[in-house]
TrEMBL record:
A GO BP entry: IRE1-mediated unfolded protein response
PANTHER family listed in its UniProt record: IRE1-RELATED, PTHR13954:SF28
Keyword Hydrolase: no
UniProt source species: Paramuricea clavata (Red gorgonian)
SMART domains: S_TKc
GO cellular component, one term: IRE1-TRAF2-ASK1 complex
Name of the protein described by the UniProt record: Serine threonine- kinase ppk4-like
Keyword Transferase: yes
Keywords: Kinase, Transferase
Upper taxonomic lineage: Eukaryota, Metazoa, Cnidaria, Anthozoa, Octocorallia
One GO MF term attached to the UniProt entry: RNA endonuclease activity
Length: 285
């Protein structure tokens, strides 16, 4: 059963393993996506022990396609947020944010930079747990490195300011762990405001506001502690942002239980056709 279609000929299907378990099968054209698929396979093979990373099953090729197989999740964070009430998100938002940051901490402790965080790349599993997904643009830092030097990559509207600056100047960008944190702050705001973006709703204005460090919608967060927390994560100066482990210790999240308020209904994973990667998506290794 087809669940959805993405960019570059990518499709996601429901599959059934020999043990009867349902999985999501991400099918990608070799010609268009072979490097991205190989990279995602490499990253997922390193991330098998976190409850906050999508669970990897297998990677297969034929003459035309590559197939990445992961556990089937309930829905994307984007769908989840739009389907819930403000009350639900106020009560469960801190838990959801803590799980996302815990997944990010797990990656960063392994030296992995996600580099394409956005609401459609966070999945919600059958127990209501947040799981980071889509590692096609991710990179592993070499030992003693803190920065990936690369052409600017990601999804328009969900890029940190330093990536947008490099994209505008057509220069090699510098991506750090705190670059992921910048976007995690945008996602935290998205959760707490039922789908708003701290840097504006219009994509063109949003990109300019991210670049200039102008979170025009931040005042929409009425809770002072939540506002201070998000403001810290999306700070324009990369050195003033926290690392994931520091963000997890902030009072807004410090006493939140990981698994409170979980729910059980299951629907399907959907690929978001509206979220397309920047066309200048070329890595310099």
């Amino acid at each position: 059963m087809l669940l959805g279609n993405g960019s570059k000929g990518t499709s996601v299907y429901v599959g059934i393993m020999e043990d009867g378990s349902e999985v999501a099968v991400k099918r990608m054209l070799q010609q268009a996506c072979d490097d991205i698929a190989e990279n995602e396979d490499k990253i997922l093979s390193l991330t098998t022990n976190s409850p906050f990373i999508v669970n990897y099953r297998n990677f297969v090729k034929d003459t035309t396609f590559v197939y990445l197989i992961v556990d089937l999740c309930e829905e994307t964070l984007k769908e989840h947020v739009h389907s819930k009430t403000f009350k639900h998100l106020r009560e469960n938002g801190p838990r959801m944010i803590k799980q996302i940051l815990s997944g990010l901490k797990f990656l960063h402790d392994l030296g992995i930079l996600h580099r394409d965080l956005k609401p459609s790349n966070v999945l919600v599993d059958i127990e209501g747990r947040m799981r980071l997904a889509d590692f096609g643009l991710s990179r592993v830092l070499n030992e003693n490195e803190s920065t990936v030097h690369t052409d600017p990559k990601g999804t328009l509207g969900w890029m940190p300011s330093e990536v947008i600056e490099a994209m505008n100047t057509k220069e090699i960008g510098r991506y750090k762990k705190k670059s992921d944190i910048h976007v995690a702050g945008m996602i935290a705001f998205f959760i707490l405001t039922k789908g708003e973006h701290p840097f504006g709703n219009c994509l063109h204005d949003r990109m300019a506001n991210i670049l200039n460090g102008n979170p025009v919608n931040l005042a929409n967060l009425e809770d002072l502690e939540a506002k201070q927390f998000v403001s810290w994560l999306i700070h324009h100066n990369i050195d003033d942002r926290p690392y994931a482990h520091e963000a997890l210790s902030y009072p807004f999240l410090d006493h939140v239980e990981f698994y409170e308020g979980l729910h059980k209904p299951i629907v399907s994973l959907v690929v978001d056709e509206d979220d397309e990667h920047d066309q200048h998506d070329m890595v310099v290794d």
